[in-house]
What does this fold into?
Amino acid sequence: MSEGDSHTRTVDSFSAYLEGELSPDEKASLEHHLSTCIQCRTSLERFRRTLGGLGRLKRTGAPHSFLADIQRQINRRSRGRFFRRRWLLFGRIPFEWLSLAMIVAMLVYYIVVLQSSPTGVKPIP
Amino acid sequence: MSLSERLLVARLLKRDETAFNEVVRQHGDRVFNLVLRMVGSRAEAEDIAQEVFVTVFKSIDSFRSEAKLSTWLLRIATNHAKNRIKYLARRREQGREPGGSDSGDLADEGRAPAQSHIRAPDVLLEAAETEDIMQQAIATLEEDQRLLVVLRDVEELSYEEIVEITGLPEGTVKSRLHRARMTLKQLLEDKFK
It folds into this structure.
């Protein structure tokens, strides 16, 4: 095998080598070539850095309004059949607010009705 | 496919809106990131990613339960991204977009600094490991090469998943991916010569 063939074969095996997919014989042969060839060693190092750079690309998340935008699209395209706008807090029945309203209503009832009843009238001093 | 995924799909088939919301929450970021890396523009990526999920809601009946939901989603995403890339290329050819790219393009960011200050190739390659320069290099890859690089090296999917998404045999995926990586390495080296 010529020296050029050896370089080509080595370079062609970079991906398989770095992903651990070479057989023990292939791996040994490649590592032997690398130990004697600075050109292929440099090339492998740059290849490795390229892959490293790709792996470090940060993940960009979808925008905050993403789900709402999709829901709007589906609602429009289905002519309102799906994802109808609900007038509920956080898309569900707001039990917290309902209970608060009940408490306030009971309090008002107590003050207005019970306090003004004959038994609730305070004696004049 | 796991039991929870089966149940989720069953609810999706009934057009259960909360199940759909769950799918968007689970897979939205990944789909968005994939199309962003493919098209290189946030505005386009947002539009495509939304379209992907609208398609999912509409076409869930065509989902075959032997596949993974995530793989099916990513296949839809890659098809939408490829179509958009072709459409944008056509539009650019027709001269409607002189100069080519939007202000939100990832590939437009951070071009000058690395080129103007650093000289030694190895240091330049180190600089090339930064986000923006890498994205520029990805953007110059051919569409098929770009897809494989994004799926394997950015999204870190298994070869099995990539085969399912692209429909290519595993050997073809591996050889094309290697060529793509070599092209990328060469692009980065040439950039700083």
